Protein: MHS family MFS transporter
Organism: Rugamonas apoptosis
Amino acid sequence: MSIASASAARSQAATGEPKPQRSPRKAAFASWIGSAVEYYDFFIYGTAAALVFGKIFFPAFDPATATIAAFATFGVGYVTRPIGAVLLGHVGDKYGRKKVLTFTLLLMGISTFMVGLLPTYSQIGIAAPILLVVLRMLQGLSAAGEQAGANSMTLEHAPAHRRAFFTSFTLSGTQAGLILATLVFLPISALPEDQLLAWGWRIPFFLSAVVVAVGMWVRRTLPETPAFTEERADKADRMPVAQLFQHHKANLVRVIFAALVSVVSTIFGVFTLSYAVNTMHIPRSTMLTLLVLANVVALGAIPLFATLADRIGRKPVFIFGALGSAALIWPYMWSIAAVNVPLIFTFGLLLSGVVYSAANGVWPSLYGEMFNTRVRLSGMAIGTQIGFALGGFAPTISAAILQPGAGGWVPVAVFVTATSVVSAISVATARETYKVPMHELGGAVS
């Protein structure tokens, strides 16, 4: 019997409380729906930044500068994510995963709804983009704790031999949120330009109130995880973050660099959408349709790759996803520059729908298993959010390094390739954990 299990048994005998039960399906579904709600809110902002915000919040700039400024407001949400990761990671590791997941859902819903209420630059001047940035920062605080909390919750409820499969539902929920956000924007984007800019863009933000209500209803009865309950009975550390930095620095650094693979996602979902529509003049509906189809494919691919990771290990599946994405970004961006719609769909679906899903579906278990229960939420939240910060600013960086002419996209492809390769190298140095029992996770690299 492990130390944690023995402590839990003593606590149970002393208090008479029943042993906490695993609820893997309920935890997976609650994580799925919560992530779908959270990232519906998060992604409608990215779509609006690519298609609308430059025109209504930064109209005094020339179009290229306005696009960069709009992308910067998208990226600024990632600045507050490391701060939120420290705060919410501490709360989640000390007081419970469920408290964090309730708070993040409410904060994201309120801040997203308020974006829809914002007056534009023509109405209140410079105060409009300032308020936009403030609300985006609140979204970032929320997102910092959501995925790490949901991943920790699902991982700790999952059966030992299917941890990757069950934790992958968090990322499937993220994809579902992106699908929902894009589907909502499809009819909105078809509005005449004046109506889109006047009122149409607000509708997806107002609808966030509905999806948040659904998420809160689903999560209301989710039990705390057995692993956390046992640790709390064993008097878990008062300062989990201090414990993290003292004993888990190497794995924290690995997660930071591994999380750079997120650059692929934001380049695909935000930058190339803007590049295709605003620079290459490909119809908005065409690119939004591609985003929907890619994420529909990902919904099927993510659990399949996660199942494979439960059989052969986390590392080979993740590394395949990272290096495959590094290669496929080249033909995908070339096809956009060539305005070749059939190839755009072919390479876009392969890149985002299939290959990137290998890394995206496996990282919840891969990162979570690098830490023990006492610091898991903090380790995942802080590590991913620092790494995701570069992903958040990737569209801004890409818009700045984009060159004129037929080959102007090449620096962007180099940037994506470099970050993906760094991510793969980081994971290659990690311990393989797919056969390691829960109470032994967080140990040294073997």
